[in-house]
Predict the 3D structure of the following.
Amino acid sequence: MKKQIQEKIDFEIRGLNEIDTFPMLDNIHFPLIGQVVLVTSVNREKIPNVAPKSWISIFARKPAIVGFGCNVNHDTSKNILSTGEFVINIPGAELAKKIWRASESKGQDSKEIEKVGLTPIKSVKITTPRIAECKAHLECSLDWTKKYGDEIIIFGKVLLASIDKKAVEGTLEERYKYLKLMAYLDEGVYGVIKTAQKIDQDNPTSL
């Protein structure tokens, strides 16, 4: 029996000026999703800022390098370039409304984190605070950056990782059920990881 192949729609992307809307393609969000995190940073006056980001990934193990995309005009990138540090906080889906509130927060306010309903707590290695309600945290020092137009990729060296005790106890399924990790899908739309499944080593095609 011949395998049916779905019809493909091609979008030609030639250069920077023609992909201003990427990852939106003809009003469709390209299905390359990113985990939702909250990045905390401080300016030179130690005023904290919190902002949700989803263009994020681990780039190296030794040393441990993480990176995320940001607009050069955002307080997040300005603060990090100024102070050389930041924290990546990993929220669960129960914080969705507060994360949305953080995305709408503008300007610099010493109580910005509290005003969106979150709690700042001291970090171990750096000045930038962590978010108490988040379930894991990466304290980072700025390693290097790369600009593309008005976007910047910020790479950080992980100095310390912390995680809720409950997130490392129990079975793999129980841990991910507790974490409730989020992924950005589209404007105002997110997904939640509710299950963890292992590949059958004896029969890896049985997904």
About this structure: The chain has a mean pLDDT of 90. The first strand starts at residue 24 and ends at 25.
